[in-house]
Specification:
This protein is an alpha/beta fold and 423 residues long. It has 14 helices and 13 strands. A 5-stranded antiparallel sheet has the order 3-2-1-4-5. Strands 7-6-8-9-10 form a 5-stranded parallel sheet, with helices on both faces. A 3-stranded antiparallel sheet has the order 11-12-13, with no helix packed on it. Strand 2 and strand 3 (71-76) form a beta hairpin. It is elongated, with a radius of gyration of 60 Å.
């Protein structure tokens, strides 16, 4: 064959750079690719089976990476299929020993499976426990961060599988308990490789809806490995970042997914979620009636007690007659009025006498009284009072103030001593 000739030629001749003038044959390129891949040998890989088909005794399928968007096809020949577990199927998480093979004639790369087995449950539990410890250290499980559920949600956001029993259980039981409750249902894969992205998208969508009061993620239990999507770190962080109260109703008692620890409330089943999220209208009406009866009884008792107390108060002598206070205080009030009048009159008499005394004393000291006794006051024209003859030399005019008026006078000077002192 031509490609074998190219292979032998490549082994006989040293590698020469491929150029436009000296290109490599396709067979030579294929051989070099095959030889390069053969040097890789066998390798153990881990992934999730996303395609599993049997044809002519051989298995053709695909493995998907557990965390990233990467897929590789594989082939299990019938001779190897007899040595691997018979229960392998789509959705299983496995580890496989594969050998990459490049088929030069067809130009295709195949992954030949030499061994394949389920991932050990112990390995899964160990990984989950490490993740549990990490998230607990970050506080994602703390009770202090869990949000209180509303007493009566008007709209419930439900994330569940399409046409699943979990959806029917939640909706039916919630509406039986409170017929007026509304639902916003977002269907998502609850197992397999689409679980994580679809559940995260549903959480974000319902959390952004302002009418949704609480979220429920419901699934009716299942195999532990099928529930691994609800322990995925990306789902857990999306649930922790949700501002709307979130209820986990996965319904797996033996090995609970980590979503139960991150959620604000864990329900054992979808039916239990409906009962814990939505109050029973019959029970609430009964409680209202009981509260109404208790209030009526307490109010009646209180009114009866206060009525009796008022009756006792009204029967006291102090309130039996409306005029008793006036009657008992009338004589005392009369005495106080009489005493007050007496004191006022006494004070007025004392004030009158004191005023008269002050008036007499003032008049005694008044210049007018001195004038009434025959004295006069001599004043110069400038108003100064004359106190000696020198104050009014001869020829100076002055004024004499008498008891009953004034007269003008003229000074003749100082009189003779003989005439100055009459006998």
């Amino acid at each position: 064959m031509h490609w074998l000739d190219d292979e032998e030629e490549s082994r006989r001749m040293p590698d020469a750079p491929a150029t436009a003038e000296n290109p490599w044959p396709i067979g030579l390129l294929g051989v070099k690719i095959r030889d390069y891949i053969d040097r890789l040998g066998t390798v153990w890989v881990e992934g999730e089976i996303t395609q599993w088909g049997i044809s002519a005794g051989n298995v053709y399928g695909k493995l998907k990476d557990l965390t990233s968007d990467a897929t590789v096809g594989f082939t299990i020949w019938s001779s190897v299929k007899a040595r691997i577990p018979a229960d392998l199927k789509h959705g299983d998480r496995v580890i496989a020993l594969i050998k990459p093979n490049y088929w030069v004639k067809g130009g295709t790369l195949t992954m030949q499976v030499l061994q394949m087995k389920h991932v050990g449950l112990g390995d899964l539990l160990e990984r989950l426990e490490r993740l549990r410890t990490q998230l607990a250290g970050e506080g994602l499980f703390d009770l202090s961060r869990k949000k209180q559920l509303p007493f009566l949600p008007h709209c419930i956001g439900l994330i569940t599988g399409k046409e699943s029993d979990a959806e029917k259980d939640v909706v039916r039981n919630a509406q039986l308990r409170w017929p007026a409750v509304n639902f916003r249902v977002v269907h998502a894969a609850v197992q397999g490789d689409r679980t994580v992205p679809e559940v995260i998208s549903a959480i974000k969508r319902l959390d952004a809806d302002p009418e949704v009061d609480v979220l429920i993620i419901a699934r009716g239990g299942g195999d532990f490995q099928n529930l691994l999507g609800f322990s995925d770190e990306r789902v857990l962080r999306a649930a922790a970042a949700c501002s709307t109260p979130l209820v986990s109703a996965i319904g797996h008692e033996a090995d609970r997914p980590l979503l139960d620890d991150v959620a604000d409330l864990r329900a054992s089943t979808p039916t239990d979620a409906a009962k814990r999220v939505v109050p029973d209208v019959t029970e609430e009406l009964s409680r209202v009636k009981q509260a109404h009866a208790r209030l009526t009884t307490r109010l009646s008792t209180y009114l009866a007690t206060e009525t009796a107390r008022i009756g006792q108060i009204r029967s006291r002598p102090a309130l039996a007659s409306a005029t008793w206070i006036v009657d008992t205080r009338a004589q005392e009030l009369t005495r106080y009025v009489s005493r007050g009048s007496e004191l006022v009159e006494r004070m007025l008499d004392h004030g009158t006498r004191e005023t008269a005394d002050l008036r007499q004393h003032l008049r005694a000291l008044s210049p007018q009284r001195t004038l009434d006794r025959g004295y006069a006051i001599a004043q110069r024209t400038d108003g100064h009072i004359l106190r000696s003859p020198a104050d009014a030399p001869a020829g100076h005019a002055f004024t004499l103030t008498l008891a009953e008026g004034r007269i003008a006078a003229h000074s003749d000077g100082e009189p003779d001593k003989a005439s100055a002192h009459p006998r």
